[in-house]
């Protein structure tokens, strides 16, 4: 799995995002929450990912955008470690729930823990 986060990997479909929140499952590791749903994509992509930061918790757009950049970068760096052995396709939404702007080390650590929980859940679903 390459270490890029290209256009094909980004979740943009409003219909799929709505379905993700209505029918999907979630796993959390404060200050992050991951919503996921098994999906079928026409491309040969295993995951489509979107990130979101609440305007209610983080008032300034500059800070929200910074957190989203940190989340995308942490995902890009860690996706090959956790998702190489997955055969199913998933739509993922990563939400930041905290009330202050974190540094990259915190985001990276929490995202690794979150992906670990998600990988364990996915592995149990296969059995």
Structural class: alpha+beta
N to C succession of SSEs:
HEEEHEH
The description of the largest β-sheet is:
4 strands, mixed
CATH architecture: 2-Layer Sandwich
How far apart, in Å, are the first and last alpha carbons? 24 Å
CATH level 1 class label: Alpha Beta
The residue-averaged pLDDT reads 91
Fraction of residues in H or I helices: 40-55%
Low-confidence parts lasting 5 or more residues at pLDDT below 50?
A: none
Tally of structural domains: 1
What's the β-strand tally? Answer: 4
- Shape call: globular
Q: Could you please say which CATH topology applies here?
A: Ribosomal Protein S5, domain 2
Order of strands across the main sheet: 1-2-4-3
Strand content: 15-25%
Q: How large is the count of helical segments?
A: 3
Radius of gyration: 14 Å
Describe what you observe in this structure.
By secondary structure, this protein is of the alpha+beta class. The protein has one domain (7-121): 2-Layer Sandwich (Ribosomal Protein S5, domain 2), CATH 3.30.230. It contains three helices and four strands; from the N terminus they run αβββαβα. It has a four-stranded mixed β-sheet. A hairpin with a 2-residue loop joins strand 1 and strand 2. The two termini are 24 Å apart. The model has no long low-confidence stretch (mean pLDDT 91).
